[in-house]
Amino acid sequence: MSVKTILVWFRKDLRIHDNEILAEAVRKGETVVPVYCFDPRQFETTSFQTLKTGAIRTKFLLESVADLKRSLQKLGGDLIIRIGKPEAILPELVTKYGVTEVYHHREVASEETRISADVENALWRLKINLKHFIGHTLYHKEDLPFPINNIPDVFSSFRKKIERDSSVRTCTESPEAVIVPENMEAGELPSLADLGITESAGADDRSVMKFKGGETEALKRMHDYFWETDAVRSYKQTRNGLLGADYSSKFSAWIALGCLSPREVYWEIKKYEKERGASDSTYSLFLQLLWRDYFRFMFKKYGNKFFQKIGFKGIAPEEGANQQELFELWKDGRTGTPFIDANMRELNATGFMSNRGRQNVASFLVKDLKVNWMWGAAYFEEKLIDYCPANNWGNWAYVAGVGNDPKEYQHFNVLKQAKEFDPQGDYVRLWIPESDSIEGAVIGEQ
What we know:
By secondary structure, the protein is of the alpha/beta class. It is 45% helix and 6% strand.
């Protein structure tokens, strides 16, 4: 009888904990072949003349893959790392290691699902099955109280029904050991240059925190946020902050690459509530996880409409004549509106921007500068360390008024926002040093 060998194709699930494809492969296979492909298409220039993945997120990805490799090695396994298209690489590995089945997690955005289909077709020619798992959301698709096509287009309706009629599954147990084929050729982690990415400047000391990729760092951050600093207790009051590590959880970068499971965060919230008490803040953090689910399910429902200027409303927002010039000023943080410029400079230097900042700069680009919202979404795709397609394009479509929005999106008054959220101008002064001489809150009115 032949040995059952299962290839585990890692993508945005770079973790050992709560990882069904790894746990199932270890349970069912006699040997497991863990693989990560650095797909060149991840690093190409888009039609918007932005990069698919900028230097900061690429570095975070490399750290995350390296951490996964170390974790697998501790379990007796290893990670095969290759540069190339999965539909070319995976069939080669299947043949080389006598693989009998391939496991992967389903994605929802069109580019990712197309690659899955290409892999499936290539494997089909070898009579090998690509088994799909669902593992990126808090609520499993099969546990929703409605079919995907009937999911409400208004978040509050979705939330009420989910909270009443659905429950979050328990996390999948982590494997205790991973057995790989003898003499498996793992390969080396590439450099930024190997991926065609120009090294960015070193880490900026002004960053809200030091983001380091990988499951190890993700679990450490989660533990610190809940149990060491108790910062989750004040999340609702501080989540619109701009300065420091603990005004929000900062879990998003790790969740985006699957270094941290949303379900793991959910059950940590529940554990915290049991031991230290439930509050508006713990519930607010849960709601952010639910919004992530919502956008993923909306992508499943509406597909490519999120990548069209008219969204699923059928009418594009008004656009101005000198868009290109205004877009460049916005990108560089040179619009002359301090609160906007400070946020864009933070994004460019660190790959991160607060939730409050994102809403303001997006509203400003679309409503004030009247620039094509898709340019902004593509720029965020390049720069954000926590980029994920559904969250990014879903939120931008929402701001542009062509996505999930029961009413026309509120037009932010940037000066009012600056006064409310940066009353003394500390944030603006941090990112626009040339404004040091301007005193107090007056800085937001320049």
